[in-house]
Write a structure and sequence with these properties.
InterPro entries: GYD/TTHA1554. With about 110 residues, the chain is α+β, with helices and mostly antiparallel strands. It has four helices and four strands; from the N terminus they run βααββαβα. A hairpin with a 6-residue loop joins strand 2 and strand 3.
Length: about 110
């Protein structure tokens, strides 16, 4: 299954709710992932532009897009991004395919 990085920015209301009622969000995330055939591999909080990072597997891009839409629609996060991750092997295959690709940069 493909791997994805999810990163999100919590709203001020979400932080207020978590301060009032702290909860471990890993369990609901793991339950949700299992509903679409996915698996959570990690869940972290961070400083900076994004507050929450996660690493997960999903059956395909459609499942990942569904997850992004559902989380965004929930309103707890002002920004949700899901980034498809490629394995080293996948990138090596892409690089080898790029050798013969007939692209030329503008002006060359």
């Amino acid at each position: 299954m493909p791997f994805y990085l999810i990163r999100s920015k919590a709203t001020p209301q979400t932080w207020a709710d978590l301060i009032e009622r702290p909860e471990d969000r890993r369990e609901p995330s793991e339950k949700a992932a299992s509903l679409y055939g996915g698996k959570i591999h990690g869940y972290w909080y961070a400083f900076g532009e994004y507050d929450v990072y996660g690493l997960f597997e999903a059956p395909d891009n459609t499942a990942a897009a569904m997850l992004q839409a559902a989380i965004s629609a929930g309103g707890a996060y002002s920004k949700v991004e899901i980034v498809p991750l490629l394995s080293v092997e996948e990138m090596l295959t892409a690089l080898n395919r790029a050798k013969g690709f007939p692209y030329r940069r503008p002006g060359a």
